[in-house]
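hi support,

uploading two proteins for the ticket. first:
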Amino acid sequence: MRVINIREGIMNKALAEFIGTFVLVVFGCGAVVFSSDVVGVLGIAIAFGLAIVAMAYGIGSVSGCHINPAVSLGALIAGRMTPRDFGIYVIAQCLGAIAGAAFLVAVVSGKLGGYDVAVEGLGQNGWGEGYGGGYGMAAAFLFEVVATFIFLVVILGSTHASSPVGFAGLAIGLTLAAIHIIGIPVTGVSVNPARSLGPALFVGGQALAQLWLFIVAPLIGAALAGGLYRFGWLQSKP
């Protein structure tokens, strides 16, 4: 019976992570695809932030609402999850992001005037001439590392046992929104390899060629933050 309960528990977490990442991509990238000309940068930033807030309170009690491989890596390094759970979380998150992107493609394909995903995009991340503000690779890499580091510091700090109960979702969502406000012109903001993977697979071309940066940079930023918590440098001493 114990084995069955453990299996059911991890499957519940995996399902929660799948749904949460699906919602993040649908809300955030959906704001780019359907409403960017109306809501602008601020509206897109709020959409990503609200997706996190909604899922934090919707699935947080089930899986912790990582919905981001970088967050899971930070939690792993900080000693808050097992390697087995980390692997399962990442798979569920990537599948959820792909499903979210597929949903957006299915909806936008019904646009009567037509919509070429490869040309008009799907909220994919990128850098260089012709993307956003035209920032170079070095700037994009630096931004993603530092932004993810900040994001993980907020996540690991606000979810610590000594932090006020009930406010983590709001703090994390607002932080993600703030990161998007400043970073959308630079990379479109990833800080989440799964969020970048889903749209890139459907857009292809340059989005897929540049995907490596939105995997490597967020993981570096997350590892740095996780290490600070692992060694107690960002935790109060008794």
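and the second one:
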Amino acid sequence: MRGAPESRVRDALESGDSLPGTAGFAGELDGALVRDVLGRQPIFSERGDHTTWSFDHRNLSNPVAVPPGHKRDEAGLEQVWSLPDPPATADREEALETVQIAVLDSTREVEADGLAVAFSGGVDSAVVAAGVPDAPCYVAGFEGSHDIDAAHAAAEAMGRELRVVELTHDELREAIPEVVAALGRTNPMDVQIVLPLYLLAERVADDGYDRLAVGQGADELFGGYAKVAKAPGDHRVEAETIRGAAREMIRTLPDQLERDLLTLRAAGVEPVAPLLHDRVVKAALPLPDELLVDGDRRKVALREASREVLPESVVEADKKAVQYGTYASRELDRLARQAGYKRRMDNHVERYIRSLVE
């Protein structure tokens, strides 16, 4: 069992508690394969054979993932946990205090031994870094990218050591086959997102660290996406409220976490995601619209919770999606065009990715 003691998972099965106080789990328990409700630990079995399984799909000939919140055994597949859907909290101060306690407790309990922090300068990674003050912070990006500039500014404001992993075209090109093998995917969005993460993690591993703390989950749990802020007017979400749109984003976490975790493990580090601890999820789910988004300000509750440990400039720092903030998307498109895959072609970037893999 990865991520939690077997006894904790067994109790969760018996009680139906979907958030039993863990940071996610997956493994075999009493002859069944189980995976937590948010899919924070991926697990795979051979199609039609739950007794042959692995945490890495590459170890199987015909892998199929156990869905989040499910149990797979000789009887088949059964959903055993569902994500809670509590009503919105009416007491603003109580909600903010609950989030602050959950976030700060979860970040402060992270063990610092062998740990580095993926640090982009936004509030997500900064509050994680604040919990482990002795861990080095790493940022990846092409020269002049937003993430490198933002990380420098935040690290200076926080008085933290920053190590820059400056990306190059050669490194991007060479990493693509490794990333595709780890993911089992070639779609450009996934590859663009994880390429800088993979190269950063490789550097972290080369420097002697075997664990990487990340700010994963903050955008989904706390309303960090533009399409959530624009709900219900954004065609990319179905919900009629900001809360509903945020919940839609939370439901995308299992696929994203599988992608990111497999990538980091392939690079040689084990991810640590304190903002995805059950206590943080529990604190975030009841947040009302105005504590997710207030005008142009997103992740309101998380920003307020971070004021105790972060400078004002970092609390309110803007954050770009990693593929844009590092220039990974732009430069991967440039490489594709240089290789003859022009934008007028359908799926020109994916064609380029496939050419490198083949």
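thanks. also noticed: The chain has a mean pLDDT of 95.
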